[in-house]
Design brief:
Layout lengths: L1 H46 L13 E3 L16 E5 L7 E5 L4 E5 L22 H4 L2 H9 L26 E11 L2 E4 L4 E4 L2 E2 L10 H15 L3 E9 L5 E7 L2 E2 H7 L4 E2 L13
Parallel strand pairs: 7-10
Antiparallel strand pairs: 1-2, 2-3, 3-4, 5-6, 5-9, 6-7, 8-12, 9-10, 10-11
């Protein structure tokens, strides 16, 4: 009898696991169809001067910002995002109206292209010299090839030359800041301030009052002014992660010291002042 009970228990565990997998896969398929529907709706509506899409409830997924239906995406990064409600190996899905692209993302995992978005369980390792392109190395790092970032500072294969049209250092003029850690230059380059984090204006963890205070402080400090930029990397939204300096004052450090931001510990390595 005990053997039968044990077998039934094992079968129950297997069945439960399979059921969860089936549900997760079904939720992913529905979300993929939804993000395609949003893309088609936005592209059709734009012909008639309509800039919004219709929202609908999804099982297992949700819009990153539930009340935000602008086809241009979140001003913070320019994407419409569908994200899983639970951490269950389902990817987040990202639509960008300007390029018409849809991509999928799962932290520290390499995925097949949209719409498959399957985890690639490859043991292949890349060498920096074989990659040859810093930008490609950075993409691989973001897909889970963490060994490419030996000093854990968020930048892969630092010895490689950057084959991008933006130099590591230079000057930029800030047009405006969307929130306390994201700004746009007069040339349209989106800057995500490195090593810090400020309250969010929208989303699950939104804190609008504090977010607006940080945004207003930053805008008063740097909008319309020319600053020195040190570009560190690009994030998965294509924003430049960088440090900004105004007349020798480190803007990121200034935000932290005045209580408008905190040090983003997980990504603080590129900023020596953040380690003190």
């Amino acid at each position: 009898m005990s053997i039968i009970i044990s077998i039934l228990s094992i079968l129950g565990i297997i069945f439960n696991s399979l059921s969860k997998t089936v549900i997760r896969d079904a939720e992913k398929r529905v979300a993929i169809n939804k993000i395609i529907s949003i893309k088609n709706e936005c592209e059709t509506n734009s012909i008639y001067g309509i800039s919004e899409f219709l929202n609908s409830d999804l099982k297992g997924y949700e819009l990153e910002i539930n009340d935000f239906r602008d086809c241009e995406g979140d001003p913070n990064h320019g994407f419409v995002n569908l994200i899983p409600k639970k951490i269950n190996n389902n990817p987040s899905l990202h639509y960008q109206f300007q390029s018409g692209s849809i991509t999928c993302y799962l932290p520290n995992k390499e995925l097949t292209p949209f719409p498959d978005c399957q985890i690639i369980n490859s043991k292949k390792k890349y060498r920096c010299n074989d990659i040859g392109d810093w930008s490609l190395a950075q993409v691989l790092l973001n897909k889970g090839h963490l060994y490419l970032d030996r000093d854990k500072d968020g930048e892969a294969c630092e010895a490689l030359r950057r084959k991008i049209n933006k130099p590591e250092k230079g000057n930029v003029v800030i047009k405006e800041c969307y929130d306390g850690d994201t700004c746009t230059t007069t040339n349209g380059e989106k800057i995500r301030l490195a090593c810090i984090d400020t309250p969010e204006l929208r989303g699950k963890n939104a804190n609008p009052p504090d977010a607006k205070k940080a945004r207003d402080y930053l805008n008063n400090l740097i909008s319309g002014k020319e600053l020195v930029i040190r570009r560190i990397t690009e994030d998965r939204y294509g924003r430049t992660v960088a440090e900004l300096t105004l007349e020798g004052i480190n803007i990121q450090q200034q935000l932290v010291e005045n209580g408008y931001a905190v040090i983003f510990q997980e990504y603080s390595n590129p900023c020596p002042w953040a380690k003190s």
